[in-house]
Design a protein that fits this description.
Elements: E1 2-5, H1 12-20, H2 26-32, H3 41-46, E2 66-69, H4 76-81
Antiparallel strand pairs: 1-2
Helix pairs in contact: 1-2
Amino acid sequence: MKTINTIKNQTVFDVAVQHYGAVDMFVKVIELNPHLKNDYSAAIEAGVPFENDVLDLSYPVMEGTEIIIETAMVNIKIAQELKDKEVISFNKNILEL
């Protein structure tokens, strides 16, 4: 196991890809980290309604959140390729469409 910290605009899917090497590992991210909360600042700026007490996978996780990663389940080859890259898929501009 290791602990990582989320970066600005990083979703649960991004964490799964960057640290496990597979998007479908988002389930493991959520399972190991029931404390996850969304950053709804982009929704607030765009006037988009949201449910604050539900983890919404389309929004980023709060920046700086500590997340546990189960290293035994990491795809080493892909994780190595992404090691020095930031994986961020959230784009707040889509909220304004």
